[in-house]
Amino acid sequence: MPPATLDLERVTPNIHTTTRLRGCNPSFVTTSEGVVVIDTPQLPTRAVAMRAEAESHGPIRYVINTEHHVDHIFGNYWFKGVPVVEHQGLYDNFMVVTPDLDPYAYALEAVPTDDPGAASIVPDRDTYYADPNKGTIVFTGDLTLRVGNHTFRLLHTPGHTPGQVAVHVPEERAVFTGDTIFHGCQTWLMTSNVDQWLEALERIRQLDVDHLIPGHGPVTSLKAVDAQRHVLLEWKAAVAEAVAKGWTREETVQRVRFDDKFGPVDIGQGYMMDHIQTLNAGSLWDKLTALGYARGR
What does the alpha-carbon distance between residue 110 and residue 113 come to, in Å, rounded to a whole number? Predict the structure, then answer.
């Protein structure tokens, strides 16, 4: 089997990322004393390839995960032996099966279509869950790591997920936001807290950076903060209006949609547009009604 291709982009002389794979934008930063990986590829052969590419620049010192969603953490399995750094909120939700989602099964959905060569290296469920390579360095609040000539400021930015972090690397004038920013593609609200998410965006806005590596979509700049804020506010306003009109959950899901406004679904998941619209509208309706937003006025 030929080596998997990553289609890496060099953002700065020390930052490498790939924004063209199904899943998140896994990245790594080279320093004078090794390499720091930020999120791991969901596709197994790409996780193996990224580890090999990162190690060609030096020993991998840390893997940092920005959130617990499967497209950011499933590849950890192929980075065993490397210390994994995670927020407590991420660690507590790492590959947890819920009534709505089996993350292991969801991760494997992409293999036949996007990574058929991975069939021989994917462990069975029991083997995977025996050691999925979750956090070995777990923190609350913020955390700063120093690796060689680089600083990695792990900033707790909850909203999209409870354990969300942004990774600020001041020496590169760059920030890795995870899914606090979806750039040029549909935003997954899922079980997010939109008000916290808006606060997280303001924290990112205060950073002195030139390069913003989002969770999904092309590399951008701080201009993406305003665009993401606009998306969140439009979703919240539209669903709040639906609740105020007395629309049921089912009516809201049918009528509140932004599939023609906020761009395509990220790579490899175009077939999930309807699912995203349904999930976003339904989850917001649940949250707003639970908070006592007026209905039927």
Answer: 6
